[in-house]
């Protein structure tokens, strides 16, 4: 005969196994939902931390957690900084703004770059001296990692302890890696902005030094000579130095206006060619030099930063034509020769170099900003060529690889 007790125990075990299987399936489904929402709504800019805070509500809802927090590794690399929290009392959140990188389960997740599930949050209560954490039955820590480097963590505080299958743990890890990649992209974007600002400031300083600062230094020396001649009563020499000062002041004022115009100009959103055509449209009215644009390029494959550097080089070359060449006509040529882009500015003015000196000492066309143009050319893996033309006048030519891979590979 069958044993009724054994049958009852068997049915109970079967029901328990079915419940555990259903719970595991539910946990897996929730993890898949979180992953789907993360991939569908992940931002692509530096607002990632704000988004991580908003996504915390999704993590809490789909894991059925009672409270949660999201932290990122501080720039010092020694602390986790609280970005957002939900369900934490204000006094607890205030004391949790910064915590050591090696603290408790969060520290384990940072060290191992792995998801950690704890049977309680008592360790948090001990480490932080916050009894509030002791009221939870479990905790999940999801690291936000990119290429093995942890950039932050999600803390999810559970009402009851919950077993986590390896499959669900892998899903949570995938979620963390996805979010970690977004954090890394945001960090790189911030660094890129900082570098751009620093480089532009350096360029501005160089441009001021190569034009206005040199003129002011010249005027300062002339002023000292003027004072000496006034004290000695040498009227003719004093008049000469006063005339030099007047001329220098006029040149400094012109340089300042030109610098302000360059600093205010920005790359046209429609691209490099459109920006250059916009300059050419009013060039003769502003400078008295007739400028034509000869665009022989069927297409131009440059990145935004590369277009900006090319634009500023050509803008400086055209400014030199207007300020120093004495030219009546100028030409801007855009073309492709073999595997290189070639941008040329030619004029019929006085030339860059004194007659008979070839590439020797420059004539009165000073303040050329050549060093600045060369630095910008190096940024796009290009080279700057400057020469007098046989028929008179001068040419500034920028040559750079047409292939983006070659420009990117340049030091």
Task: Report on the architecture of this protein.
The protein is of the alpha+beta class and 411 residues long. Helix content is 55%, strand content 19%. The protein contains twelve helices and eleven strands. It has helices spanning 4-41, 48-63, 90-95, 104-112, 122-128, 166-232, 235-264, 272-281, 283-287, 304-325, 370-379, 404-409; strands at 67-73, 79-86, 98-100, 116-118, 138-146, 149-158, 290-295, 329-337, 340-347, 383-388, 394-401. The longest helix has 67 residues, at 166-232. It is elongated.
Overview features:
411 residues, alpha+beta, Beta-Lactamase, 2 domains, 11 strands
Give a quick precis of the structure.
The chain contains twelve helices and eleven strands. The protein has 411 residues and is α+β, with helices and mostly antiparallel strands.
Indicate the low-confidence ranges by residue numbers: 354-367
Order of helical and strand elements: HHEEHEHEHEEHHHHEHEEHEEH
Strand order of the largest sheet: 3-2-1-6-5-4
Query: CATH first level of the largest domain: which class?
Result: Alpha Beta
DSSP helical segment count: 12
CATH fold call of the largest domain: Beta-Lactamase
How many individual domains?
2
Structural class: alpha+beta
CATH homologous superfamily identity of the largest domain: GAF domain
CATH architecture term of the largest domain: 2-Layer Sandwich
Rg from Cα: 34 Å
What is the helix fraction of residues, given as a range? 40-55%
Biggest β-sheet, characterized? 6 strands, antiparallel
Please provide the count of β strands.
Answer: 11
Mean pLDDT: 79
- Beta-strand content bin: 15-25%
Q: What's the end-to-end separation, in Å?
A: 87 Å
Shape: elongated
